[in-house]
Amino acid sequence: MTVKEYNKSVALYSDNIYRFVLKNIKDSEKAKDIVQDTFEKVWRNHTDISYAKVRSYLFSAAYHTLIDSVRRDKFKAVWSDAEQNKHFTTRSYSDVNEVLHQALDRLPPVQKNVILLRDYEGYSYNEIAEITQLSEAQVKVYIYRGRQFLKNYLVKIELLV
């Protein structure tokens, strides 16, 4: 891939990658850092990457960078410093979008990622399999299970409201 093609890929895909990462971690600054790290990885390997495959490579690199970041951050939380009152709420919400995001946050990371790639970003099963390094059958199973969970979760929420 040439420098011109690299710059074109930054212009074309940076917003999509940012949205994908942001949907997963809900922290705009971390999302920006992950996108920056992703494009840095691509730049380091730009001579070995075909421009025709750059989109898949970018999402794969972003996915793996995101997973690495989440694993690193998992060990940083200090629960003794947390305020007890922050963990309880008496407010009720009727915003469907917010309830859907809460439901997405309850999914296992793999299911959440494949659902976001399929339903939010519009990737095909084959492309998702390539990005996540799962088989196409596994991708279909994770999407099915994730959608079933979301359906059941939303029905339960509906009964409470």
From TrEMBL:
<dbReference type="Pfam" id="PF08281">
    <property type="entry name" value="Sigma70_r4_2"/>
</dbReference>
<feature type="domain" description="RNA polymerase sigma factor 70 region 4 type 2">
    <location>
        <begin position="99"/>
        <end position="150"/>
    </location>
</feature>
<dbReference type="GO" id="GO:0016987">
    <property type="term" value="F:sigma factor activity"/>
</dbReference>
<keyword id="KW-0805">Transcription regulation</keyword>
<protein>
    <submittedName>
        <fullName>RNA polymerase sigma-70 factor, ECF subfamily</fullName>
    </submittedName>
</protein>
<dbReference type="InterPro" id="IPR039425">
    <property type="entry name" value="RNA_pol_sigma-70-like"/>
</dbReference>
<dbReference type="InterPro" id="IPR013324">
    <property type="entry name" value="RNA_pol_sigma_r3/r4-like"/>
</dbReference>
<dbReference type="InterPro" id="IPR013325">
    <property type="entry name" value="RNA_pol_sigma_r2"/>
</dbReference>
<dbReference type="Pfam" id="PF04542">
    <property type="entry name" value="Sigma70_r2"/>
</dbReference>
<dbReference type="GO" id="GO:0006352">
    <property type="term" value="P:DNA-templated transcription initiation"/>
</dbReference>
<keyword id="KW-0804">Transcription</keyword>
<dbReference type="InterPro" id="IPR013249">
    <property type="entry name" value="RNA_pol_sigma70_r4_t2"/>
</dbReference>
<keyword id="KW-0238">DNA-binding</keyword>
<dbReference type="InterPro" id="IPR007627">
    <property type="entry name" value="RNA_pol_sigma70_r2"/>
</dbReference>
<feature type="domain" description="RNA polymerase sigma-70 region 2">
    <location>
        <begin position="13"/>
        <end position="74"/>
    </location>
</feature>
<dbReference type="InterPro" id="IPR036388">
    <property type="entry name" value="WH-like_DNA-bd_sf"/>
</dbReference>
<dbReference type="GO" id="GO:0003677">
    <property type="term" value="F:DNA binding"/>
</dbReference>
<comment type="similarity">
    <text>Belongs to the sigma-70 factor family. ECF subfamily.</text>
</comment>
<keyword id="KW-0731">Sigma factor</keyword>
<dbReference type="InterPro" id="IPR014284">
    <property type="entry name" value="RNA_pol_sigma-70_dom"/>
</dbReference>
